[in-house]
């Protein structure tokens, strides 16, 4: 649980187009790292390269390495499906299986792994739903469809589903962008709790959100459309938002561009 990530000299391509160039970034365990920057600078692409989701796109590939506690997830012996199991992902739009029950949504990954013991599945479902701050709202309707929950509840259900398989890392791609402000605050509170147990990387367009939830912030930028995105500056979130070293970072966080 809660492993560190070391991204080293990562170049990321879609076919012949280089979307991201030379990214090196250390992500400490039990910590929230926010990826920020203008549209198209490659934040989501970098995030998806951290659990080998990037290569699901035909023609997409990476060069460089991503070490999980020192082990390269792109090593020749490494199974990409296994990587996706240990590095969970939560997407912009909540994507529960809509007709599947709330409980089955949470334990879907465990069942795929072959777990059939009902008591064990019930325990994991309760623990994960408690971990996602959703238990009290759904404990009396665990057999009802996941699609019947509100958007914010569905997103917490997806977080419960992600943590049910005990991942080493949680990746979140704008997890609040489809949510109202109250649901957003609930997810932000949850992220602050989850970081006690998990390494979290979050992409967000919302500067206040990055400032509120993250410990470390990485600012990405691109010189022009069609050029690859680059990591411009990474530092403690407090430093990035109060006194960044690079002018482009300051311009972005103060709303002068992007
Ligand atoms: N499936 C794809 N095929 C080809 N190019 C892609 C694909 N997905 C993204 N790109 C390109 O890669 C670059 C980086 O995109 P990415 O979505 O990672 O940026 P982003 O910073 O997350 O943007 P946004 O903030 O708008 O979500 C962009 O030029 C984008 O057009």
From TrEMBL:
<dbReference type="Pfam" id="PF00005">
    <property type="entry name" value="ABC_tran"/>
</dbReference>
<feature type="domain" description="ABC transporter">
    <location>
        <begin position="5"/>
        <end position="247"/>
    </location>
</feature>
<keyword id="KW-0547">Nucleotide-binding</keyword>
<dbReference type="InterPro" id="IPR005670">
    <property type="entry name" value="PstB-like"/>
</dbReference>
<keyword id="KW-1278">Translocase</keyword>
<dbReference type="InterPro" id="IPR027417">
    <property type="entry name" value="P-loop_NTPase"/>
</dbReference>
<dbReference type="InterPro" id="IPR017871">
    <property type="entry name" value="ABC_transporter-like_CS"/>
</dbReference>
<dbReference type="GO" id="GO:0005524">
    <property type="term" value="F:ATP binding"/>
</dbReference>
<dbReference type="InterPro" id="IPR003593">
    <property type="entry name" value="AAA+_ATPase"/>
</dbReference>
<dbReference type="InterPro" id="IPR003439">
    <property type="entry name" value="ABC_transporter-like_ATP-bd"/>
</dbReference>
<keyword id="KW-0067">ATP-binding</keyword>
<keyword id="KW-0813">Transport</keyword>
<protein>
    <submittedName>
        <fullName>Phosphate ABC transporter ATP-binding protein PstB</fullName>
    </submittedName>
</protein>
